[in-house]
Fold each of these.
Amino acid sequence: MRNIFRDFNVGDDEKNRHEAMHPMILLVIIVVLCALLSYIIPAGQYERVLNEETGREMVVPGSFTFVERTPVSVLSVLTSITLGMQEASYVIFFLLIIGGMFGIINGTKALNVAVANLLKKLKGRELLLIPLLMIFFGCGSAFCGNFEEFLIFVPLVLAICITVGYDPLTAVGIIFIAATAGYAGAITNTFTVGNAQEIASLPKFSGMGLRIVLFISLEIVSMAYVMWMANAVKNNPKFSGCYAYDEKYNKGKIINLENVSKLTTRQTFTIIIFVAGMILSIIGVIEWGFYVDELSAIFLAAGVIGGIVGGLKPREICESFIKGCKDMVLPCIMIGLANAAILLMNNANIMDTILHSLSNMVQKFPAPVMPIGMFIFHEIFNVFVPSGSAQAFTTMPLMTALADKVEITRQTAVLAYQLGDAFTNIMAPTGGEILAALAICRVPFGKWVRYLLPLFIIWWLVSFIFLLYAGSVGYGPM
């Protein structure tokens, strides 16, 4: 596999016409806008109480008060960059380990040869890879709450897609559209449904039957959309929103399927170690509650052991690791910038004001469509608080009280939350994981939004149907 990532430098003037805004510039603009909002939006705060079982603070409904304005200074804007990176350090170092591991495995050429042989055998049936991969990623999110962990697969899926004639948008879609459908279905997602149901005093993972149907519905429409778009690009490469851009950046990512050699014994054992690391990480997440620290340890070990077995010398392992880490610098910086924007709003005490204003707007919805109002509320607030668990402890006390007030079930309120927490995760520029994936694939954010928009509308329509049904039948604990 040739170097999976390419330089982001701009070429000649002719090619510059197709160049989109650099993603770092977009995020810097967002950081500055958040700082300016601290001079416009009044500062306010909710009282919070400690949930002793979880150790997390929860908002107290009806406790909002305006406080003295604390606008952000120029120094605060500058320091927010490093503070944002510190807050996201667990993801940033996870990405560096991922990059380093792939750098080592790529240094052995084992992955290149293995993928080339697989694609050669699947020639003419490449479209089948899309539903198979999307089911895997979707189930990981629906049952285990996986999301940022899937960044490990981006380089590999990207290389496969480019080789078989798809575009980078398809690669990002296979992973994160499927993961978003899974997050919205949230069958046994502890981070979203688990926390929300606990706050709403509902049995953990109750109401699973409707969520299973919801997940299957979202996954089907998602797979159909990605497959349709991928097939259209394969038949006509200019159909891709990234066509001109891909011509510049992605030609070198194609895996050569001509004269494919067989895996050597060393390469075979390297692939076995690589796959074993993936399987161990999945089992660890499901059975032992592994998160990024444990996963990083597994990937680091798989990379080093795979490099030794693959025949790399100690110096070559180190150089390959550093080379892989370099490829992850841009995604890491973007995650830090996204966190800086959120940090500024919290420090300026305007996040609670936004929450208070949005919750007041929801109360104006008529009772029959209140679940849709709650869903829209969460979709908007998710732009400012992308973390599912953080959003649950911030918003669910308010939405639970509102559900009781308008006489809709708390389970319906949880359903509106889980759906609203999902979709804008991959549409908003504050979603660090999707920005990292787009940076790895060298996809401009604007092109991703245009690609995703039709499916986004379909997702909303499916959500409306399930929310209206839940509200009408009194969706309960079950």
Note: The chain has one domain: 13-473.
Amino acid sequence: MTTSPLDISHICYKTVAHIVSTLIFGLGLGLTVIAVYGITDTKLRNLKTQEAELQQKLMYSDAKQAQQQLAMNEKIKQLECLAQNVYWEAAGESFEGKVAVAQVTMNRLESGRYGKTICQVVFQRTKVYETVICQFSWTCTAKSRIPPRNQRLFKESEEVAKKVYFENYRLPHMTKAMYFHNTTVRPGWNKVKVAQIGQHVFYRD
């Protein structure tokens, strides 16, 4: 079948008219939606901006919470080291005796000469003529690898550690104490004696 030029013109005219009609209807529908819901290009841009800002705040909030959690975990770790030191060095001592051991640990930390953290101070080792010396003797024994056996005494040690670490509790006469030993030994240190509390004798430089 053949198509005359007149038929082709008629078809083209109908096609163009349909396209124009569709565009006008689409534009009208779009304008109607915008008019009904009040959504303009400016408002859409504002909404997108607000969404981006909220996403940034959420990311910042998550990062901040993660940092806070890491900081808290680190504090718990340092507290554990302090509690273990109090337990293994002074589990059988009085409250004052336990505080004194914790205070020596903190004095060493604050001096900056024995480590940058409580755990570094507690587990510090020095080498003298090929001999390894632990600053706190229990850290050189199997005790450093086993959990405390007496949970009641460990709980007491932990409470003392919390008081000294978190509440900054101190014994006034122990502010400069840096060393101590058990009364059963006599190391002959050339140090200034500060006090004797229970089975421990404390010294300062």
Note: Residues 13 and 103 are 97 Å apart (CA to CA).
